[in-house]
Structures are given as structure tokens and as C-alpha cells.
Design goal:
It is a single chain. The strands form 6 sheets. This protein has a 6-stranded mixed beta sheet with strand order 8-2-1-12-22-21, with helices on one face. It has 2 domains: 143 residues, FAD/NAD(P)-binding domain (3-Layer(bba) Sandwich), CATH 3.50.50.60; 156 residues, Polyamine Oxidase, Chain A, domain 2. A hairpin with a 4-residue loop joins strand 10 and strand 11. It is globular and about 65 Å long. With 344 residues, the protein is of the alpha/beta class. The chain is 28% helix and 28% strand.
């Protein structure tokens, strides 16, 4: 019987996995989540203006765009998010050629994309510890896992689920390298690739208005900027004005090793002003680098999750094993829960 389960990561895959597990785990089983970050969300984290809580911006996921089959498969999840105000239909206009299927339905997150992650985490009731950067996972007496962090924290678990990007799984120490090799998983993880980009969040004074006919704009044939959104307008929110800017993937990949503040302030922001010369001056700017933005080439076969060890159980999952959309993360979560359910 499982007594102590650990999920590493606190993004949307981890949050959905935890909420689904709470429904099947025995009441005596403890459920923990560790993340190296200071808060939850991963690419679905919402950032706030340093001096104005009414001004927020989503630097990662911009909107949720399921196709009809995904809406069917995850009907209960979408109904829950819509009924509780975490999703609403997108009303703002999208200008420019965008990558979405004609069959896609666009939803926005009125409270920010991070609110969806927090919603599932609250439902899970897990013990969450931030600033816990897992460094090694070591098999102990073939019964439990010794999980250690860079900060020196160490605990034992009889089931571990890893939801971080593939390159971070490959960096783990302890028993992980030998397990990856013995299961012939390492080479497939190494083949997983990601897009990369820089992102800017611009926060404006409450009296500012930005007069453009769109809420989202995909910039065509620009070497630096691919995407601009008036974030509060996109989310149909009454919060103060904010804007998010994403660079092109080629620009991100070319400059990924450079300092994010230098790139954003000396290259991206000046280019934005060239594209939008009437843009008001923001009161604050948040610079961010997405080294692992979206999965470009997923794990072979897109299995959703892979079992690295049967007993004690160790499973790896996340969008590396599916694709980078909410539904891809949910598919991975469902697969991990199915694996654990078979052990109960």
C-alpha cells in the first residue's frame, strides 16, 4: 500500500495529477509536492506588478485552445473551470496569422492562468514545499526513494512522480541515471526538444489606455517579436492595463544563453517601441526567459508517462510525453494516475 507519494514540479501536469490522485489514494496516504520555484504554475504562472496588485500579466500560456475531441475527452474539467470562473470564452479579436486549428475554441483566464493551477492544487490538498530543488533520487533497500534537494532537505517516499522538462530529468543524480540507461529511456529523453523565447510583461499606470483594435496580435515576418497581447483586454478583465510580448522562437534559440535583462531591455523593448511608437511608458517591466517554452519534438510515441521503476514506483510524465497544451498535460496526468491506480 502506498503511504507517501511525492510529485516533483508544481505546474499544471502536477496540479491535475495531484487532484486526481486525491480521489483514489487511501486517506492514510500523504501526498507531497516539491518545486524549485518560489510559487506554483510553471509556464502557467501569473505575475503581478510590484506596486499594484490590480495589474497582472501571464508571461507563459496565453489562452486555452482545445479542439472538439479534447473538449469531449475532458468535458468535466472544462465544465468545472467554466462554472467556477477560471475560464471564459475569448471575446477579444486576434490579428495576424496564428498557429491554431480552425476547430479550436479559445478560452481566456480572467483571473490569470496561474489561477487554474492553484485551483487544482487546492483540490488536491497536498503538502506543497517551494524552493525545494530536487537534486538526487536514490533507491533505498528496494523499498523507498531517498529524495534530496540542493538545499540539503531529505525525505523518503514510496512513490515518486516527476513532471519537469526532459532535460531536468536527465540532470538528476542518485539512481536515476542508471534507471534511465537500463530502461533505454535516456536516449529518448535526449531527443525531446523545445522552443525557446523571451517574454516581457509591461505594467502601466491605472489611467493609461492603449488604443488598438485587437487584444492579441501575431506579428508576421519580424525577426524579434512574434506575439503581443493587451493582457487585461485579452482576458476581458477590469484590472489595470498590462501587456505581454513574446519573441520569435529563432530569436529565442539564438540568444538563449545571453542575459535576459540585457536582451529584453536593449533589443526587445526598443523593437516593440518601433512597432508601437505611441505606446505609453510602463511603470514596471518584467523580463523573463523561457528556456523550455513549448515541446517541439516530444518523447517517442507520446505515451503520456513512462514507468522507470515498478517497485518502489517511479514515473516520469508531463508535456514532454504528450504536447504543450492544457489537454496534453491532462492526458499525461491521467496516464500517471492510471499507473498508480493499478498498484492500489
Amino acid at each position: 500500500m502506498l503511504e507517501r507519494v511525492l510529485i516533483v514540479g508544481s505546474g499544471i501536469t502536477a496540479a491535475v495529477t495531484a487532484s486526481l490522485l486525491r480521489n483514489i489514494l487511501p486517506s492514510t496516504c500523504s501526498l507531497s509536492i516539491w518545486d524549485k520555484a518560489r510559487g506554483p504554475g510553471g509556464r502557467m504562472a501569473t505575475n503581478r506588478c510590484p506596486n499594484n496588485d490590480r495589474c497582472t500579466v501571464d508571461l507563459g500560456v496565453q489562452y486555452i485552445s482545445p479542439i472538439s475531441s479534447e473538449l469531449h475527452d475532458h468535458k468535466s474539467i472544462y465544465n468545472d473551470l467554466l462554472q467556477n470562473g477560471f475560464l471564459s470564452p475569448m471575446r477579444g479579436s486576434i490579428e495576424g496569422e496564428n498557429p491554431y486549428d480552425d476547430d479550436a475554441t479559445h478560452y481566456v483566464t480572467p483571473k490569470g492562468s496561474g489561477s487554474i493551477v492553484k485551483h487544482f492544487l487546492e483540490a488536491a490538498g497536498a503538502a506543497i514545499r517551494y524552493n525545494h530543488h530536487v537534486d538526487s533520487i536514490t533507491l533505498c533497500d528496494n523499498k523507498t526513494w531517498d529524495v534530496c534537494t540542493l538545499g540539503g532537505q531529505k525525505e523518503q517516499f514510496d512513490c515518486v512522480l516527476l513532471t519537469m522538462p526532459a532535460p531536468q530529468i536527465l540532470q538528476l543524480k542518485g539512481s536515476i541515471p542508471s534507471l534511465l540507461e537500463s530502461q533505454q529511456v535516456a536516449q529518448r529523453l535526449e531527443a525531446v526538444s523545445y522552443s525557446a523565447r523571451f517574454a516581457l510583461g509591461l505594467f502601466f499606470s491605472p489611467v493609461v489606455t492603449i488604443n488598438v483594435p485587437w487584444s492579441v496580435k501575431y506579428v508576421e515576418r519580424d525577426p524579434v517579436i512574434r506575439y503581443i497581447a493587451i493582457d487585461n483586454k485579452k482576458r476581458d478583465s477590469d484590472q489595470d492595463v498590462s501587456m505581454v510580448v513574446h519573441t520569435t522562437v529563432p530569436f529565442g534559440l539564438e540568444n538563449i544563453e545571453r542575459d535576459k535583462d540585457t536582451i529584453c531591455q536593449e533589443v526587445v523593448l526598443p523593437r516593440l517601441r518601433e512597432l508601437m511608437p505611441d505606446l505609453p511608458t510602463p511603470v514596471s517591466v518584467k523580463n523573463h526567459k523561457w528556456r523550455f517554452s513549448q515541446v517541439h519534438h516530444a518523447y517517442e510515441g507520446k505515451p503520456g508517462a513512462v514507468v522507470l521503476n515498478e517497485a518502489p514506483l517511479l514515473v516520469i510524465g508531463g508535456d514532454s510525453f504528450t504536447y504543450s497544451k492544457l489537454d496534453g498535460c491532462v492526458y499525461s496526468a491521467e496516464k500517471m494516475v492510471k499507473i498508480i491506480s493499478a498498484k492500489l
